[in-house]
Specification:
Layout (H helix, E strand, L loop, with lengths): L4 H5 L2 H12 L2 E2 H5 L6 H13 L3 E6 L2 E6 L4 H30 L8
């Protein structure tokens, strides 16, 4: 199954894993110690994050270390940015409209 970065960050556990790894690379056991779920469940989350390119797993001796890779989050940032621009423009237009409606009309002097 092909996964993308949006699927990866949709899960709160995976977002928390990314947050942990943003601070420092950790081995799989150290990652698992931070959660009240099974080690196999953590491994599944790690696999999904790896498939999406959000983390890199490296073998160091007998340990496997996970390291965050943030390049793929640019896809999310770009997607969010288009809606930020859209809504900023819409709210600016609304503000202008409301300002016109609120401004007192000039009266003609006799």
């Amino acid at each position: 199954m092909r996964r993308d970065v949006f699927q990866a960050i949709a899960d709160p556990t995976r977002r928390e894993i990314i947050g942990l790894l943003a601070k420092q690379p950790l081995n799989l056991n150290a990652v698992a110690e931070n959660f009240a779920i099974s080690r196999p469940a953590i491994s599944k989350h790690i696999k999904i994050l790896t498939e999406c390119g959000l983390i890199l797993v490296r073998q160091k001796g007998r340990e496997r270390y996970c390291e965050a890779k943030f390049d793929k989050l640019n896809e999310v940032s770009d997607w969010v940015e288009q809606y930020r621009v859209f809504w900023t423009n819409k709210l600016d237009e609304l503000d202008k409209f409301l300002s016109i409606k609120r401004s007192p009309k000039k009266r003609k002097s006799k």
